[in-house]
Amino acid sequence: MEKNDIISDLSGVVAGTIVEASISTVAPGIGGILGGAVAGNLVEKVFDYVGKEIKQRFLSKREESRITNVMDFAKKKIDKNLQNNKKLRNDNFFKNIDEYSSAEEILEGTLLVAQKEYEERKLQYIANLYANIAFDDSISCEMADKLLKISSELTYRQLIILSVIGFAQTSGVHRKSETYTNVSGLNNVTIASEIFDLYRKSLVFSDQAILDAAGINPSQLKLGGYGALLYNLMELPKFPFVDRCAIDVLNFLGILMPTK
């Protein structure tokens, strides 16, 4: 089967049959907000329409693979949310406006981000972002567009930085309490630079002003605004972290790891 055929298959069968089957198992009939077959039909329509649109475009085999993976990841996450008795949003997200719904628009944007995303470790989290937005009516279409744009601009390591700071913020784990006056080692320098970039983007905040990448106080860093939304909606990795990239960030922030 060609990759374009896989995309078409995912747009219809995966989003329709599998997701709808799980909905009718969890919430038979029309009970609840957008429950039962209604939710299944909505999801099926979105994936079917956007999948067919994407199929018409010229894509390299690598781009096709990324798009296919994100569609599959998003479907599985939506399926999991439904199995956990979550309800699809009940606003205008799935309603057509000028023959195009916000759900379709955001899914198309998600797949276009995936198409160009060479850091393929980000793909699962990009899929999570779309899938969870479909269940959260506090996220407007404009906010979803912004979140998607931000996610496309961040490096994989910046997502890990958000994840580690979020972990430290919620767990109260010890972090380095002294402000860096200088940062040595190429790896640490690049981590400091990426943290400073997140700070300037107002994704990471600090109780102590950060004037440059060499003046970071790890204990003062916290998530807020769009940074917190990305942490939650993308379901960034949680502790324990096994990624080498995460270990480097943990070391930079001076987080004490338990001894074996």
Tell me what the structure shows:
The protein has 260 residues and is mainly alpha-helical. The protein folds into two domains: 3-152, no CATH class; 156-253, no CATH class. It has helices spanning 3-26, 36-55, 61-83, 102-116, 123-133, 141-153, 156-171, 186-200, 225-233, 244-253, and strands spanning 96-97, 100-101, 204-206, 221-223. The strands form two sheets. Strands 1-2 form a two-stranded antiparallel ribbon. The model is unreliable at 1-38 (pLDDT under 50).
Tell me the layout of helices and strands.
Layout: H1 3-26, H2 36-55, H3 61-83, E1 96-97, E2 100-101, H4 102-116, H5 123-133, H6 141-153, H7 156-171, H8 186-200, E3 204-206, E4 221-223, H9 225-233, H10 244-253
Antiparallel strand pairs: 1-2, 3-4
Strand arrangement across the biggest beta sheet: 1-2
C-alpha end-to-end distance? 48 Å
* Total number of helices: 10
- Strand coverage percent: under 5%
Q: What characteristic shape results from the CA principal axes?
A: elongated
Q: Give the tally of structural domains.
A: 2
Q: Which spans have pLDDT < 50 for at least 5 consecutive residues?
A: 1-38
Helix-strand string: HHHEEHHHHHEEHH
Radius of gyration: 20 Å
Query: Helical amount among residues, as a percent range?
Result: 55-70%
Largest sheet: 2 strands, antiparallel
- What is the strand tally? 4
Coarse structural class: mainly alpha
Q: What's the overall average pLDDT, rounded?
A: 83
